Amino acid sequence: MFIDFTTADNCRNPWAYEICVKCNACGRINKDSMLQDRLKVLEEYLQERKSFDRWSDDKEIRKIQEQNLRTQIKELEEEIEKIKKQLAKGKQG
């Protein structure tokens, strides 16, 4: 039997559309490995964003796409760096 459940309120997986994919980025499955799991999900998503190639032919729309993509990449890189620092701090303590 396969049972799905909705995403957690604090779901951190950009690919999980209202269905929990059990990635554990939110810590729902295992709080101890939450940061490592979140890092994995975000690094994979960052690579997807960096390889985006579905550009609009309309110049104005493409300009918006490029701006949005730059913002997404910057935010993902910042969040990934923050998680890496948290993980490093946890290993020292």
Descriptive report:
The protein has 93 residues and is mainly α. The termini are far apart. The chain has a domain at 33-92. The mean pLDDT is 92. The protein is built from two helices and no strands. It has helices spanning 34-50, 59-92.
Subunit arrangement of the protein: single chain
Shape: flat
Can you give the mean pLDDT? 92
State the separation between the terminal residues, measured CA to CA.
42 Å
Proportion in helices? 40-55%
Rg (C-alpha, Å): 16 Å
Assess the beta-strand content as a share of residues: under 5%
* Structure summary, number of beta strands: 0
The gist of it:
Keywords: Coiled coil. With 93 residues, the protein is mostly helical.
Brief descriptors of the model:
93 residues
SSE order and pairing:
Elements: H1 34-50, H2 59-92
Keywords: Coiled coil
Coiled coil: 59-93
